[in-house]
Task: structure prediction
Amino acid sequence: MYLFRYIDIKEKNVIIKIMKKLLIILGLLLMPSFVFSGEMEDIQLEMRDYDAIEVPAGTFIPVMNAQEISTQYCSEGYKVKFIVTNDLYMHDTNIVPQNTEIYGYVEKIHDPVVGTNASMVIRVSKLVYSDGIEIPIKGYIYTANNNVFGGGISEPVKYRKVAQRQVKVRRTTLQLKPSYERKMGTHITIPSGSNEIVVLTAPVQITHTLTN
Result:
């Protein structure tokens, strides 16, 4: 009698264990449908219904320099920051809002030498929107001298007086002409707060815009 009772209890325990396993398996099978459905709803809410806008190479973006940059103490690779000063619209869309940050670095630096002033080239590499979204870009801080700041001829060592005959007034005047010898070149500095221009050297795909 006790033997049969022991067997019944043992069978009941086995059945209970099997039922628990079946319930766990059933729960695991049903769980992904709830999880994924919730994730899909979140993804659909975050998606935006517009195509990427291409900003062509050669586009100018007005910016303000956020810190002083000088060949005197900066080196190649020195990180720089600029602030966009005007909204940039394309197809009635504000793709680069005012106050967007543009980051880059000093790509090249040449120290001053006798006869030539220092020079530098500043490259930009990314846009950062106010909500933290980053978009890579390729461009430079623009100058009319092939995007090079500085690099001009240094001051002459001295000036010499040269007599210049003026025929119409029938008199001779003295003019100062620079000597061929040149002084040591000087450093170039871009002051903080100066207005500059970013020029894009490659197209940029804008896939993000800010919404009010």
Summary: Residues 56-153+183-206 form a domain with the Lipocalin fold (CATH 2.40.128.260). The chain has two domains: 1-47, 56-153+183-206. The first strand starts at residue 53 and ends at 55. The chain is about 20% helix and 40% strand.
